[in-house]
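Researcher: Structure prediction, please.
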Amino acid sequence: MTEPPGRRERKKAATRQKIADAALRLFLERGYDAVGIRDIAAEADVAVTTLFSHFASKEALVFEQDQDFEQRLTQAVADRAPHEPLIPALRREIHALVRHCTADSAAPIWRMIDASPALRQYEESMRLRHADSLATSIAADLGLPQTTTACRTIARFAIDAYSLAREAPDPDAAMDEIFPMIEAAWEVACPIPAPTGDTDKGASLTAPPSTRRRRAR
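Model: Predicted structure follows.
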């Protein structure tokens, strides 16, 4: 009997989470370098092939929420409310991600990442990928056929803001300091797409700076 799609997806998600939980438990108990893929598969009671069907590498097991974070960033652009300018929507989502990643429970994980060159390199490549996806989402929201330097720059600024705030002694204060600079940069550099009919979000992106500031309040 064939399982309904919803049930199959729930089982896949549960297996993925079981593997990720087992990996993190072993990494924190033994140290990242002391744990092998076979150890994780045995702890999760799955085959090694099953593990690799969910995670492409050992590093990916540490960043198991990678795809979720990327999706949240792009949805902050695409799904924001009508008339809401871009930067405040990004700020709200990045602030939520910073709070998630600065919870007390996350501290041992970040110590492990900071101590591992392989994990630091993976995190850097992940941030670049998130910035690329965010730039694509910003360009699409503007109605541009491809990303521009302005879209890529603001996306990179936003991703760097997450990292800087996460590492700051006072993440909230860092966000308050960083995002006015990002908003000022966007007001100067925002590309203006060709007219494609009136859209509320498009108007909030491309209006003159003084108008955008009024709407952002």
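Model: The chain has twelve helices and no strands.
Researcher: Thanks, that helps.
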